[in-house]
Design brief:
Elements: E1 48-49, H1 57-62, E2 67-74, E3 77-82, H2 85-93, E4 98-99, H3 106-109, H4 125-133, H5 139-143, H6 146-160, E5 165-167, H7 168-173, H8 175-185, H9 192-204, H10 208-231, H11 237-241, E6 245-246, E7 249-250, H12 253-267, H13 270-284, H14 286-294, H15 297-310, E8 315-320, E9 324-326, E10 329-331, E11 336-340, H16 341-345, H17 378-395, E12 399-401, E13 409-410, E14 416-417, E15 421-424
Parallel strand pairs: 3-11
Antiparallel strand pairs: 1-13, 2-3, 4-8, 5-15, 6-7, 8-11, 9-10, 12-15, 13-14
Length: about 425
């Protein structure tokens, strides 16, 4: 994380993003449907900007049509942007008109056809694998990690507590969830920087050749790890996946690898991104930081759900299976549809005053997915986010962003704050 190397950074003035990002063009068309109007969506630009996209780009999108065609929903690939939370809920549940198979494109990128499990599976196959996986990630299992999670938070806070300052992303947001995750799958923590570089290039990279090289490197790492665990099983998540059954048989190496790839993508990124977004809010909104200091633990559980709504980070995709319409737009087989939880979280048709953070809101958000596609690691993610804030406000004085610092936001399929120098005392 930190400073992702993802091409040229946009450092323009004004509102910190390119002008005309949603203007219509007459010449840009889709090869599949030449009559389509094409827009550009700044939310997916994979650039550094210096204004909060949740407060600038996203409200502008919500002022426009419910569905529009953009040239950049994934790297250099056009697709549909659906901005309303209700439409996204319907798509999550609609397995007739949409599918997930191949939606990340990573296997195809290197000329292969394996599935990321369960991310790229559809019912009824998805149901069988998800049912096998659910017990490994159940709340009761994540509860067993409470002591480790809390101790790790305290250990990291202790390294900078008396210094009066820290660079929150590198000193805490990266190390806290990712070291826990690497221990859970028993990969060497000392290789964290390399693992992050591969992951960053896969998810945020703008150089296709480097992306391909990163996918190959991760595949090699995980393939070798799976082979080693077959010979030397332990109590880690990879070894435990090998004990699972589907259709009355144990998972084979291809299936275990497919799940490991899913773990790699999710475990090295999303909690770090959410921590960066949530702590930026608390650092620049002292009234909310003070509220979380005086709240009871149960009140802060609710408050974290509101922060998850207001600062959703991840946009995923679906692929259209059958021709159909949404809000007068015709979607064709093979079209990509962006499922942008940052848009869903700030939808004015779903939430009253969506730009306001209201800790007692109790939002029914889509930040961690919906229906059968709810995030497999949601219980651990919530535990880590709640524990991080709880431990921070318990022992740290009121903190704020370093005076004069312009907070950098990375746009793209995962929104995050890339640097956050905090001061206190």
């Amino acid at each position: 994380m930190g400073k992702p190397q993802t091409g040229d950074e946009y450092r323009g003035g004004g509102n910190g993003r390119m002008e005309g990002t949603l203007s219509m063009t007459d010449t840009a068309t889709s090869p599949q449907a030449p009559a389509r109007d094409m827009r550009h969506c700044a939310l997916f630009d994979r650039q550094i900007i210096y204004d909060n996209p949740h407060e600038t780009i996203i409200p502008e999108i919500h002022a426009g049509p419910a569905v529009f065609y953009a040239d950049n929903v994934t790297l250099n690939q056009p697709g549909w942007v659906v901005r309303r939370a209700e439409d996204m809920r319907k798509i999550y549940a609609d397995t007739e008109n949409y599918h997930k198979r191949g939606n990340t494109g990573f296997a195809k990128m290197i000329g292969e056809d394996w599935d990321i499990i369960p991310t790229e599976l559809d019912p009824p196959v998805h149901t069988a694998y998800r049912s096998a996986l659910n017990p490994l990630y159940a709340p009761s299992q994540m509860m067993k990690l409470d002591v480790k999670v809390r101790e790790r938070a305290r250990e990291l806070i202790a390294t900078f507590k008396d210094k009066g300052e820290c660079e929150f992303v590198q000193d805490f947001a990266v190390l806290f969830p990712i070291t826990i995750f690497l221990e859970m799958i028993d990969l060497p923590v000392e290789r964290l920087a390399q693992f992050l570089e591969w992951e960053n290039q896969m998810l945020r990279g703008t150089d296709r050749d480097i992306q391909i090289a990163s996918v190959r490197a991760v595949k090699e790492l995980l393939t070798e790890t799976v082979a080693d665990r077959r010979k030397n099983p332990g109590d880690d998540l990879i070894s435990r996946t090998m004990t699972l059954e589907v259709d009355g048989r144990k998972w084979n190496d291809r299936e275990v690898f497919g799940h490991c790839f899913n773990l790699y993508l999710g475990g090295l990124d999303t909690v770090t991104a959410n921590l960066s977004l949530q702590f930026r809010h608390l650092a620049q909104n002292p009234q909310d930081q003070q509220t979380m200091r005086t709240n009871t633990p149960s009140q802060n559980v609710v408050a974290v759900e509101e922060l998850l709504r207001a600062y959703a980070a991840v946009s995923t995709q679906r692929i259209v299976s059958k021709e159909h319409q949404i809000d007068g737009q015709t979607l064709l087989p093979g079209d990509v549809v962006s499922m942008s939880t940052p848009l869903a979280g700030r939808d004015p048709e779903a939430f009253e005053n969506p730009q306001e953070v209201q800790f007692d809101r109790k939002p029914a958000h889509l930040t961690l997915g919906h229906s059968i596609h709810r995030c497999l690691g949601q219980h651990l993610a919530r535990r880590e986010l709640q524990t991080a804030i709880e431990e921070f406000v318990k022992v740290m004085p009121m903190f704020s962003v370093q005076d004069g610092f312009r907070v950098p936001w990375m746009t793209g399929n995962i929104i995050q704050v890339t640097e956050l120098p905090l001061r206190w005392g």
